[in-house]
Amino acid sequence: MSNQLELYQQVILEHNRKPKNFGTLESATHKAEGFNPICGDHFWVTLELDAEGRVARIAFDGSGCAISKASASMMTEAVKGKTEAEALALCAQFHHLVKGESPEDTSLGKLVVFANIWKYPARVKCAGLAWHALQGAFAKTAVVSTETDATTEKGPST
């Protein structure tokens, strides 16, 4: 087994067993529900911005496979302290990574463990679900799906 594959498995399993920032923020300034109708993964992302517009707190709740849960956990860690623009830029980088469009993007830090997920097309949506919900939260979209563009499904402001 290659070192990269072994690392990938260890990271995914660890974040699945002990996800970071799992739960709901009652004081959230932004929130969105994300759903993957293909496999049934379902998450809510809640976040709170500070006075400078940076992600002060972020959490996710719901259920999904090990890949979607690990991705959500790692996403919450990656966007803490970032502005909306920085977080959305990170979302774009991550989506390119999991689609195989920039597999060598080492600026993503620990998120590079998802670099080969594009080889398993059904898993790309699992890895991207929480990221779509994060984009939806910033866009004030109540519900997003992996089957639609997060910025076009407007819901009630949250």
Structure, explained:
With 158 residues, the protein is α+β, with helices and mostly antiparallel strands. It has one domain: Sufe protein. Chain: A (Alpha-Beta Complex). It is 39% helix and 16% strand. The chain is built from four helices and four strands. A four-stranded mixed sheet has the order 3-2-1-4, covered by helices on one side. The radius of gyration is 14 Å and the shape is globular.
Provide keyphrases for this structure.
158 residues; alpha+beta; Sufe protein. Chain: A; four-stranded mixed β-sheet; 4 strands; disordered C terminus
Described by the principal axes of the CA atoms, the overall outline is globular
Q: Mean pLDDT, nearest integer? A: 89
The topology string of helices and strands comes to HEEEHHHE
Name the CATH class.
Alpha Beta
Determine Rg (CA atoms, Å).
14 Å
The helical percent reads: 25-40%
Largest sheet report = 4 strands, mixed
Task: Supply the helix-strand structural class.
Answer: alpha+beta
Distance between the termini: 45 Å
